[in-house]
Amino acid sequence: MDSNKKSSSNSCPFNKLNELFSRKWILYILRDLFIGKKYFNEFKKANPEMSNASLSNNLKYLEKEGFIIKKIVDNETNKTEYSLTEKGKKMNNTLYQMILFGLSELVDDVTDEESEEIKQEFHKILIEEIPK
Predict the structure, then answer these.
(1) Is the dihedral of CA 124, 24, 20, 62 positive or negative?
(2) pLDDT for 11-50, tens place per residue?
(3) CB-hemisphere CA count at 13 Å for 10?
(4) Torsion of the alpha carbons at 84, 125, 118 and 82, rounded to the nearest 10
């Protein structure tokens, strides 16, 4: 690909990846989805510093981009459940590789033992036990 050519933001994978991963809180929400969290309040409880507006906007973005499905499970209470789509589940290896890179190249205040525990935990979450 000629890097001097202009491409539309929709056809450039770097633009799309940047749009996805530059969103504040998106990695935490994705982590929570892989862990098995499904409800707005569960995401909020896991990330109390995140505003309701930010959480809502990110969930809408993930739904619009086809990474998650929003399902109303109770019309009376308007209880809504979120789950990963097949497209969303395909991010598991990318997220796991980001964890490995972060541990080996960005984080310097964890012991080798702690690093190994983190790797094993995220391997289990992202590789072994992808939510159904």
Answers:
(1) positive
(2) 789 898 888 988 999 999 999 999 999 999 999 999 999 9
(3) 1
(4) 30
Cα angle 11, 17, 20 (rounded to 5 degrees) comes to 115
Name the class of domain 13-85.
mainly alpha
Q: Is residue 117 predicted with pLDDT exceeding 60? A: yes
Q: At what angle do helices 26-35 and 52-64 cross, to 10 degrees?
A: 70
Please tell me the distance from the alpha carbon of residue 54 to that of residue 59, in angstroms, as a whole number. Answer: 9
Environment class of 5 (CB within 10 Å of its CB; exposed 0-12, middle 13-18, buried 19+): exposed
Q: CA quadruple 10, 12, 13, 19: dihedral positive or negative?
A: negative
Bridge partner residues of 79 (DSSP): 74
Token pair of 19 as six digits: 């749009």
